[in-house]
Amino acid sequence: MKIYTKSGDKGETSLVYGMRVPKYDPRVEAYGTCDEANSAIGLALSHVPQGEEWQELFSVCHIVQTKLFHIGAELATPAGKEVGWKIEASDVELLEKMIDKWDAELPALKNFVLPGGCPAGAGMHFARTVARRAERKAIAVAEHLEVNPTVIRYLNRLSDFLFVAARYVNQKVGKVEPTLHQDDKK
């Protein structure tokens, strides 16, 4: 089987169920941005040290990456068609559970945190910004087409999850978080 199909050479792609749309279609933008967020998470994880103490982070992020794939499928499914796996409230609840758990282990925020720290933490911050863009793209799609509202909630919570994950990773490896410069607060 060849990896290339040549079916997109004229600027169109297929949604689930074979419907053809331009590659700039808002649904393609939305699920493509979810794919970017997924890749950014994978890149961040490639910088996390190996070891049993990181197993929870890897396990939860694997679930998140799978759910981002599912969100892409939902966004690529034309109106009136059913997707095989819908994002559900329990998916959002898992993110909230992990946010609460990891945040309880972190020092209280006293300054704005700047993206950075160790490569894994900086990568989680980058993934957070891509998740925010995916959320904005999904909301734009929802303005004109039916979108599972839990998809929007999940993407919103995902950026919070990735923010806390970045802080958690930085603290666990002993890297001080960069914060807003004192002179910039005026």
From TrEMBL:
<comment type="pathway">
    <text>Cofactor biosynthesis; adenosylcobalamin biosynthesis; adenosylcobalamin from cob(II)yrinate a,c-diamide: step 2/7.</text>
</comment>
<dbReference type="GO" id="GO:0005524">
    <property type="term" value="F:ATP binding"/>
</dbReference>
<keyword id="KW-0067">ATP-binding</keyword>
<keyword id="KW-0808">Transferase</keyword>
<dbReference type="GO" id="GO:0009236">
    <property type="term" value="P:cobalamin biosynthetic process"/>
</dbReference>
<dbReference type="GO" id="GO:0008817">
    <property type="term" value="F:corrinoid adenosyltransferase activity"/>
</dbReference>
<dbReference type="InterPro" id="IPR036451">
    <property type="entry name" value="CblAdoTrfase-like_sf"/>
</dbReference>
<keyword id="KW-0547">Nucleotide-binding</keyword>
<protein>
    <recommendedName>
        <fullName>Corrinoid adenosyltransferase</fullName>
        <ecNumber>2.5.1.17</ecNumber>
    </recommendedName>
</protein>
<dbReference type="Pfam" id="PF01923">
    <property type="entry name" value="Cob_adeno_trans"/>
</dbReference>
<dbReference type="InterPro" id="IPR016030">
    <property type="entry name" value="CblAdoTrfase-like"/>
</dbReference>
<feature type="domain" description="Cobalamin adenosyltransferase-like">
    <location>
        <begin position="3"/>
        <end position="169"/>
    </location>
</feature>
<comment type="similarity">
    <text>Belongs to the Cob(I)alamin adenosyltransferase family.</text>
</comment>
<dbReference type="GO" id="GO:0005737">
    <property type="term" value="C:cytoplasm"/>
</dbReference>
<keyword id="KW-0963">Cytoplasm</keyword>
<dbReference type="InterPro" id="IPR029499">
    <property type="entry name" value="PduO-typ"/>
</dbReference>
<keyword id="KW-0169">Cobalamin biosynthesis</keyword>
